[in-house]
Structure formats: structure tokens, C-alpha cells
């Protein structure tokens, strides 16, 4: 019997690689994306395309309004997306692109769907190396949420199995993630990572996400297949 898993799919490089890993491990994947008020909503178009191309069992897009609270450059137009930061800046502090409690909220929705599906496995493409400043990408947060999930749900308490939060990329560099994806046949031209794309969805090439992505491809002696602004 095929195992079910709920997977958070943003349309980005990391979540798409995570999807390939989940499928390789034999899971029937139920993909979950969010329209949460993000400025870079081209990622939702990418997520829908990826879900179709990679044959997930079901893909749902949930509408929530984290932008109503603001507090992040990704949801609030009055806060500029940082550009051309050096390596030291990228690895220090919590950037303004952090969306307050986003992964906590996303994982809670994933948990709710998983409980209905009786799926004991949840996949999320968090990474603690490239975004060490994001508190909700740390291993200790994931461990804490997993413990809470098993305490807070009926099937976690009464079921025969325990809920597992899978984070297969958490200790990998961007270059290692891309290399893993290549080995699994991931088509990275379908993905988008940019925080500040133009009206056609072309990546800026200067935000934190673009810089880390480009560095990962360079370290694999490969060209990023997505389109960038001139």
C-alpha cells in the first residue's frame, strides 16, 4: 500500500527538490501551497505547473492573509526587498524577508490535512544553512513542532504510528540540493525563487534568494535555466 504524505510546495527550488525526494521514497504526495499575500505570487503559478508535471496525487492552494499583519518585505510593499547583500550579511541576523510565523502556520495547515488523510508524513523543504537567520527553518523548531503535532491531534495520540516531519534538505548547501535534484531528474526551469520578479515573472538576480540560487548553480558548473531580468 502506497504511503501518503502532505508536502508544502512553494514552487521554489527547495520544495520542488523535496517533492522529488518524497516521490523517490515511494510516497503518494498531496501538495499544499498558499496564497498568503506574498508579493512574489508567480510562485503559485510555478507550484501548479510543478504539481502537474511531477504527478502529485492532489494539489491544493489555500488562501490566507498573512499580509494583513505585514512585518515582512515579502508581504508589505513599503518594505524594500534587500538586494546585493554580501555573504557575511546573508548569514547574519534575521532578514526582513522573514514572514512572521509563516512555517508554523503552513505546517499547522499541513497537519490538519494530514490528519484527515490519515497521513503520518509531512515534508517541508526548509534549510538551515542558506537561511540560518530564519528561526522557523532550524532543526530545533522542526523537532518541537513534530512533538506538538503528536500531542495535539487525535490520530497522533490514538493512532498506531507517530507523525513525522521530514526535512531532507535541512543540512545541505544550495549546491548540494541542486546536485540532488539533478540526480532525481528535477526540471529547475519550472521553479522560481526570486523575491522581487518583474511583471513577467523574470527573476531580479539580486535578492537573497536569487544570489543563493545562482551561487548553487555556479558551484555545479551549471547555468540556472530560469529567466532573469536584463
List keywords for this structure.
single chain; 230 residues; alpha/beta; five-stranded parallel beta sheet; 8 helices
Describe the structure.
The structure is a single chain. This protein is an alpha/beta fold and 230 residues long. It has a single domain, classed as HUPs (Rossmann fold). Helices cover 37% and strands 12% of the residues. The protein is built from eight helices and five strands; from the N terminus they run E-H-E-H-E-H-H-E-H-H-E-H-H. The protein has a five-stranded parallel β-sheet with strand order 3-2-1-4-5, with helices on both faces. Strand 1 (3-8), helix 1 (13-24) and strand 2 form a beta-alpha-beta unit. Helix 1 packs across helix 7 (174-183) and helix 7 packs across helix 8. It is globular, with a radius of gyration of 17 Å. The chain starts with a strand and ends in a 12-residue tail after the last helix. The model has no long low-confidence stretch (mean pLDDT 93).
Counting helices, strands and paired strands, the structural category is alpha/beta
How much helicity do the residues have?
Answer: 25-40%
Report on the biggest sheet.
5 strands, parallel
CATH topology: Rossmann fold
Give me the count of strands: 5
User: How large is the share of residues in beta strands?
Assistant: 5-15%
Q: Tell me the number of structural domains.
A: 1
SSE arrangement:
Layout: E1 3-8, H1 13-24, E2 27-35, H2 42-53, E3 58-63, H3 87-90, H4 102-117, E4 121-123, H5 139-152, H6 154-158, E5 164-166, H7 174-183, H8 208-218
Parallel strand pairs: 1-2, 1-4, 2-3, 4-5
Helix pairs in contact: 1-7, 7-8
Amino acid at each position: 500500500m502506497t504511503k501518503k504524505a502532505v508536502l508544502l510546495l512553494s514552487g521554489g527550488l527547495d520544495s520542488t527538490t523535496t517533492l522529488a525526494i518524497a516521490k523517490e521514497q515511494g510516497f503518494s504526495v498531496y501538495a499544499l501551497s498558499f496564497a498568503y499575500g506574498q508579493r512574489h505570487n508567480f510562485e503559485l503559478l510555478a507550484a501548479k505547473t510543478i504539481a502537474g508535471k511531477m504527478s502529485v496525487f492532489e494539489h491544493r492552494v489555500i488562501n490566507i492573509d498573512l499580509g494583513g499583519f505585514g512585518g515582512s518585505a515579502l508581504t508589505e510593499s513599503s518594505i524594500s526587498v534587500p538586494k546585493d547583500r554580501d555573504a557575511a550579511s546573508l548569514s547574519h541576523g534575521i532578514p526582513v524577508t522573514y514572514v512572521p510565523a509563516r512555517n508554523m502556520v503552513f505546517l499547522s495547515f499541513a497537519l490538519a490535512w494530514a490528519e484527515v488523510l490519515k497521513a503520518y508524513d509531512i515534508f517541508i523543504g526548509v534549510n538551515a544553512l542558506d537561511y540560518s537567520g530564519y528561526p522557523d527553518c532550524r532543526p530545533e523548531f522542526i523537532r518541537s513542532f513534530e512533538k506538538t503535532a503528536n500531542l495535539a491531534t487525535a490520530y497522533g495520540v490514538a493512532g498506531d504510528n507517530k507523525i513525522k516531519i521530514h526535512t531532507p534538505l535541512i543540512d545541505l548547501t544550495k549546491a548540494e540540493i541542486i546536485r540532488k535534484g539533478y540526480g532525481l531528474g528535477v526540471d529547475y526551469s519550472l521553479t522560481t525563487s526570486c523575491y522581487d520578479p518583474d511583471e513577467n515573472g523574470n527573476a531580479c538576480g539580486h535578492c537573497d534568494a536569487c544570489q543563493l540560487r545562482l551561487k548553487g548553480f555556479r558551484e555545479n558548473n551549471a547555468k540556472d535555466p530560469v529567466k532573469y531580468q536584463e
